[in-house]
Amino acid sequence: MSAPAVPPAVQDTEGARAALDAFLAALNSRSVPDWTRTLHFPHLRIHDGAVTVWETPEIYVESATPEVAQLVATGWDHSGWEKVELIQASADQVHAQVRFARYDAEDRPLGSFESVYVLTRQEGRWGVLARIGFTAA
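^ Nuclear transport factor 2 family protein, sequence as received from the core. Prediction below:
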């Protein structure tokens, strides 16, 4: 008796997880153009009771550059995953339930955030299509 075949959706979660890690590494690099390359567009974010849609990478860079500068001004140095759970997967879409924390330069936590990230494979590349989140209690 042979082992059951692993469904493509399960096999492909590795690509989605790698895209999620690339997203965080690019944010931590503070290079907004690099961070933007980890996304798919139009890109959607739901947070603080609002929905924001960026139609193009150029619009995202313009919007996110001051946002990252403001984050740095608050003492942020880097972020890290506290929890990542891939909760749903199909061949070209994965939903990740995450908890991440922001840290200062001395690695002291500044806050934790619960989110769901929607990762999609488009034209052979995994990227973050949408983020839904809030500050953790």
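Residues 8 and 22 are 22 Å apart (CA to CA).
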